[in-house]
């Protein structure tokens, strides 16, 4: 199964797929990963709230998932 994310990927789905990706979310200032509301947010929404380029974050996470 290919592990790949997009801007539409929900934070909760991302963390279930690969818990170690939490490091990228924490680095951008998303410290409420256990909050149900944050898990229902898309990666794009989270990036927008935290002032991070969503395309760059998707590329970074996908590169990590390919390792």
Total strands: 0
Instruction: Report the sheet-strand fraction.
Output: under 5%
Shape: globular
> Uncertain runs with pLDDT below 50, 5 residues or more?
none
- Domain count: the total is 1
Q: What is the mean pLDDT?
A: 91
**Quaternary organisation:** single chain
Give the H and E element order. HHHHH
Chain-wise SSE layout:
Layout: H1 11-17, H2 22-27, H3 36-39, H4 43-49, H5 54-66
Helix pairs in contact: 4-5
Keyword list:
globular, DUF1858 domain-containing protein, 67 residues, mainly alpha, 55% helix
Molecular structure report:
This protein is mainly α and 67 residues long. The mean pLDDT is 91. It has one domain (11-66). It is globular and about 25 Å long. It contains five helices and no strands. Helix content is 55%, strand content 0%. It has helices at residues 11-17, 22-27, 36-39, 43-49, 54-66.
């Amino acid at each position: 199964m290919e592990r790949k994310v997009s801007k539409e990927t929900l934070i909760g789905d991302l963390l279930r797929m690969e818990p170690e990706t939490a490091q990228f979310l924490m680095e951008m200032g998303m410290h409420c990963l256990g909050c149900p509301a944050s898990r229902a947010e898309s990666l794009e929404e989270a990036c927008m709230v935290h002032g991070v380029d969503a395309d760059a974050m998707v590329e970074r996470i996908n590169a990590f998932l390919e390792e």
